[in-house]
User: Fold these one by one.
Assistant:
Number 1:
Amino acid sequence: MAGSQGSKAAEGSKAAEGSKAAEGSKAAEGSKAAEGSVVERADLLCEAALVGDRRALARLLTAVENRTPLAEVALRRLYPRAGHAQLIGVTGPPGAGKSTLVAALIGELRRAGRPVAVVAVDPSSPITGGAVLGDRVRMQAYATDADVFIRSMAARGHAGGLSSATSAAAAVFDAVGFDVVLIETVGTGQSEVEVAAAADTTIVVEAPEMGDEIQAIKAGLLEVADVIVVNKGDRPGAHRTAGQLHAMLADAPREARPGRPAPKHPEVLVTTAATGEGVAELLGAIDRHRSSARGSDGESARLRRAEAQVWAVLVDRLHARVRALEGAEASVAATPRALLGVQPDPAAPAAGELLRSVAAHEIDPYAAADAILDRLVGAASGSGSARVR
Amino acid sequence: MTDRPLKVLIAKPGLDGHDRGAKVLARGLRDEGFEVVYTGLRQTPEMIVTAALQEDVDVVGLSILSGAHMTLLPRICALMRERGMDDVLVAAGGIIPDDDVPALKEAGVAAVFGPGTTIAQVADFLRANARARD
């Protein structure tokens, strides 16, 4: 460990000498930032991003998205500066008009002089890992506004409607001074509700005639809405759809049951994002929700967000520990086997044997999972002894 | 992590409305495992370079069939250099006469792909020539 750090430092200083020889252009500064230690590079990028360098900001976001070691250093530095931005989630089914509505919201917010950042998530291919990120197409009117920053992200296999780095990216935007961060999810079905934990205010965008009262009372997406928007208000049926949604959701009880969050009473609005109609009213509804959520509800929402963030890191760390145990070649499928394979304990059955036992119904999956967990915790705390039965 | 996807911006500078090629390429590169940001039609050089900067892409792919490539493409390359984006690969496609290719390469366009190019050829070129990732 110490040896590898030493050699990394030596490489770093050699590279720094090289770049000193280069002429002092902007590009040379960039390459200097790319060659120092991770901490130095993170510091340089953070400093630059905090004073408005958009390229540095873009690079930080890439690091965050790829969850590099630099990202952790940077996020630890930036996190104390975040917490001031208004985080607005925009979710709903594909084609409902989320991106167009986000563009219209950018327009309203810019008219009010507020700097806006957007994180727009689109799905990754489960087959090739590739993606087409097309949300910017609707937002081109603000492409060269210096106080608008739009970043597309692929979901990269994350299932909740966001990418795993979305909240962290929002925190970076928040820290460098964006007043509002709009978080646009992938086109969702009924149950991708993760955005509600990532945003202060969650807008669910529906299109006209997308369903009747029965759809409105189903559990899932509509339950997490702070504001419901029926977009494409110029289409037939938009106001009828809004009326149905309002009728079914207005009946929710006013009082919270003990131990449960207070039921939401989302405003239902009709917008035509393509023309901007109703968008100023939507911003009004968002701000009303924000000021009504400043009290204890807002506090519990912030705690939920903190919990989600800590859990995400915890899960990451756990994955990393497992990978560290099993060596470089990691795959989810190989994890338990490889994990059980380390430090063979004569008292414990070999990994393959454990899984074979589960396959043969000799032991149950719970016992096998406990065995893996014991082995992991033992390895992590250095005690090393694992119980299997 | 070196196995993460390359990120490519596909943009259409100028005023022609022929975006079939750009869309086919976006979809084809998706199938090759790239993350493709598509920005739509009628982009100014400033819009394209700003999008490339904000998205921190590894490659900018420019599709142009209007004949304005000798004006627009060097302008895009110059803007990218101005903003310190020297490490971003620029490739072009569309209807570009062979005679113009040397001047475009001089201006900073790494490759020009004409009609008949396969998606696999483009993908292989981008993988071989895009900047090293950290």
Number 2:
Amino acid sequence: MESALTLDHFLILSGLLFAIGLAGVLVRRNLIVIFMCLELMLSAANLTLVAFSRFNVQDGQPNYDGHVLLFFIITVAAAEVAVGLAIIVALFRSRETTDVGKLNTMRN
Amino acid sequence: MPVYFLEIIVVTLGLLMLMVDAFAKIEDKRSIAWIGMVGLLVVFGLLFAVKWPESADGAFWQFYSANDQISLFYKGIAVITTIIVLIMAVDFRHIVVAQTADPEKGAHPQSGLGEFFALPVFACAGLMLMASANNLVSIFVSLETVTITFYILVTYLRRNVGSLEAGVKYLILGALSTGFLVYGFAWLFGITGSMQLAEIASSLADPEVNSAAALFAFALILVALAFKVGGAPFHFWIPDVYQGAPTPITAFLSVGSKAAGFIIFLRLIGPFLASDVLAEKICLVLAAIAGITLIMGNLAAMPQKNFKRLLAYSSVAHAGFLLMALASAPTKSAVGSLSPAMVVTFYLGAYLLMTLLVFLVVTTVRNSIAGEEIDSYKGLAKRSPFLAFMLIIAMASLAGIPLTAGFYGKLFVFKMAADQGNWTLLIIGLIGAASGFYYYLKIAVPVFFATSSDDGSGEEISSIPVSAPARVAMIILTVAIIAVGVNPNLIITLFS
């Protein structure tokens, strides 16, 4: 039986994830939610990489180069979250807000 | 010495500095910065003793480019920038300590200062690796090494509202641009089936390639890189982040991260330009972005009252000139023997000299004057003729007055645009350069023609102390600016 899932399905799904993430970053005001949306965008890229790896068959093997980048992305994203959440906590301590709309003391 | 030893040495140096900070009982943490500076000076010397590998076989060279003279120049930029950032950081230590020191009893009075000196060294290692990255994976990893280090450094003054705000903005927009970059990389990998830039170039040169998908990947990567280098319309984070960040870090951002962004730009754009179908469209998009960046950067710089904000818009304007050079890349037109990549590299070299000089002056002045407003520079010429002279040289070079390094940078860019027939872009560039004369040189008015007693605060006119390393660095940079302004070949021979 032919597989029902094609590359297109994965690309559409990852495209949707990326769009949702981007829309969240642009629309939401809460820093934590924005940060989650940024992670969603990275996940969309990861899904794209895996899909292309799986469907880019060379000599009967998936192209594993994509997986290499994927593991680096996961690692880097973890580091980014560690630093990012620390920064958001530091901001909350001094300003008692996580609303990006209130970060406007420098506009003059 | 194999070329990759340079990065290993720099990372080891950073670790050493952290270890000294953690375990050695030292009264004055400035010695950590001295270790860093001496170590980086040694690395700078080693740049001239690099031995390239005889063959580029083996897995390692798929991530790190072999036989690449221009990458050495960018490594040099990274090392010099970091040394001067450390000099500034030492002068800036009082502010860092005031904003970060641990109030607990028994804590070191300078706690928090050691990391402020060590982190730029790690960023330097990332920048150096980036100069040699020839694979999407190594580009991504080195770029993130630098970016994540910068998140911490920008937010470093954790009790200062401006620094925190700048850090959060940089964090969100930096992470957003990372998202675009990896999604673009994923598509580029999907189209070409490879992570290596050389293989990507040969795949894209194939006329059978899916050009719509390739353009989509290019658009995503372009958005990400425009964020990094500060190209309009993605430059809006730059003024706030530059204003809020600690001044030495602002200097690091405006030189180091800009040079890094442009070398990645040069590397990633190469494969796309290999395709005849794509090259023309890409050139058009780049020209549009360069034009908007020039207009936005130069017009917005004019009314600025805060000096760091003015320098932020100036850095956007310079990104515009650099993008203008990139937009002329497709035809491989040459100014004399200079390729577009070389024009960009020359411009960055000149930009490094003058921007670091300005920031050295700003950091030194900041120790004696509370504000960073342009008005607070009133009477600087009376208080310190030396600093006023350095500032004017740097501003003249940023504006592009002949006999300074900045002049040749702009001249090469304009000549290339003229050879290319990009008349619209050339006119926008000339208008931008002309307005630059106004906003760079207007600083001369308060510096030379007003006295600081005007503000009625009754403050005494005292001279401004300049630390010895800063003084040496300023003199070297000034001499270099004028020497390059007389003979531009001094820089060109370094990378050709």
